[in-house]
């Protein structure tokens, strides 16, 4: 029987992944944790506890006490926020991962770990179209540097200690339940909220800035498929490229007009434009498709349909 620990269960990915894993593995077997409070459905349907992954002693006690067999470590400082406090962000992103790797090495019951990497591992010298799995990687952000170093550490722990750690280079994730915080791809979520609330959005990247994106349902399906795959079918021991669709603010704005014809958008690029300009515009994920047999299901119109509908519902509920 699997007993799963989620670190960062209150965040954008964690708040949805936790519920899906509870459906699959049983509510009582998925332990949601975070440094901040969680949405009501996370707390009502299964165990939730405040846990700081930076506290290595508390972490190892928790893992032993609850007989954890799998860990999903989702907590991180994202690209935009990390640029504001680079040393602290490096400390949080790296030390938390090292704590998880050490626990997985020391506690025999822990059989698998998931840790998300990102398209931020790439940089200005990387080919921006159909970015290959193995290529030049010179990230220019502290977040990207921490993700690239993290990938190397994951492979090191796999080769040296046999820790089975699996990872995906997530693109920007689009979802309605919990908003992301401090990323360069956040515009792709903000645009929907602002369209529904104000019929207007000011984008912090230019109209034609194309970035790799993915709907949350696809990201969750990919993540669980990767974790459930037999180790022998996996050819990458650091992080797989994964691709959904490639979107610019102008493309999303145009699609939103199907629902809100008088929606308007203006562009006021800030420091995140420079980050976006060093990231891929499209990613080659053929290794992941081959090894897992995975492909994304959500195209832009599907995403817009769900986002507008769910955000409208959320706003109606908050008014009643
Ligand atoms: C960010 O924008 O920092 C993240 C990411 C692509 O990893 N969403």
List keywords for this structure.
Rossmann fold; UDP-galactose 4-epimerase, domain 1; 2 domains; six-stranded parallel sheet; three-stranded parallel sheet; globular; binds 2-amino-3-ketobutyric acid
Order of helices and strands: EHEHEHEHHEEHEEEHEEHEEHEHHH
Indicate the mean pLDDT: 97
The CATH C-level class name of the largest domain: Alpha Beta
Quaternary state of this entry equals: single chain
Short description:
This protein is α/β, with parallel strands linked by helices and 320 residues long.
Characterise the protein shown here.
The protein has 320 residues and is of the alpha/beta class. The chain folds into 2 domains: 4-172 and 214-241, NAD(P)-binding Rossmann-like Domain (Rossmann fold, 3-Layer(aba) Sandwich), CATH 3.40.50; 175-213 and 246-281 and 299-313, UDP-galactose 4-epimerase, domain 1, CATH 3.90.25. 44% of the residues lie in helices and 15% in strands. It has 12 helices and 14 strands. A 6-stranded parallel β-sheet has the order 3-2-1-4-5-7, sandwiched between helices. The protein has a 3-stranded parallel β-sheet with strand order 6-8-12. Helix 2 links the parallel strand 2 (30-34) and strand 3 (48-50). Helix 7 (187-198) runs parallel beside helix 9 (249-256). The longest helix is centred in the first third of the chain and has 21 residues, at 86-106. It is globular and about 60 Å long. The model has no long low-confidence stretch (mean pLDDT 97). It binds 2-amino-3-ketobutyric acid.
């Amino acid at each position: 029987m699997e007993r799963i620990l989620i670190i960062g269960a209150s965040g954008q990915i964690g708040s949805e992944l936790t519920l899906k894993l509870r459906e699959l593995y049983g509510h009582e077997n998925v332990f949601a944790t975070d440094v901040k409070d969680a949405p009501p459905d996370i707390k009502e349907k299964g165990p939730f506890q405040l846990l700081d992954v930076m506290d290595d002693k508390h972490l190892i006690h928790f893992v032993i006490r609850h007989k954890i067999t799998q860990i999903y470590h989702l907590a991180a400082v994202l690209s935009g926020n990390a640029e504001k406090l680079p040393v602290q962000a490096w400390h949080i992103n790296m030390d938390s991962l090292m704590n998880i790797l050490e626990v997985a090495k020391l506690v025999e019951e822990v059989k698998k770990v998931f840790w998300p990497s990102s398209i931020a591992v790439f940089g200005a010298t990387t080919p921006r179209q159909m970015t290959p799995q193995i290529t030049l990687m010179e990230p220019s952000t502290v977040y990207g540097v921490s993700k690239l170093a993290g990938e190397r550490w994951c492979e090191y722990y796999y080769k040296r200690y046999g820790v089975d750690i699996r990872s995906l280079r997530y693109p920007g994730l689009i979802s309605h339940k919990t908003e992301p915080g401090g990323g360069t791809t956040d515009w792709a979520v903000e645009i929907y909220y602002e369209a529904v609330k104000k019929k207007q959005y000011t984008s912090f990247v230019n109209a034609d800035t194309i970035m790799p994106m993915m709907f949350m349902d696809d990201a969750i399906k990919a993540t669980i498929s990767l974790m459930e795959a037999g180790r022998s079918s996996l050819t990458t021991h650091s992080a797989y490229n994964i691709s959904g669709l490639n979107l610019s603010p102008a493309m999303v704005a145009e699609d939103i007009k199907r629902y809100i014809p008088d929606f308007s958008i203006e562009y006021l690029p800030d420091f995140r434009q420079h980050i976006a300009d060093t990231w891929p515009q499209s990613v080659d994920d053929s290794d992941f498709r081959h090894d897992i047999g995975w492909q994304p299901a959500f195209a832009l119109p599907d995403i817009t349909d769900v986002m507008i509908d769910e955000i409208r519902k959320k706003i109606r509920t908050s008014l009643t």
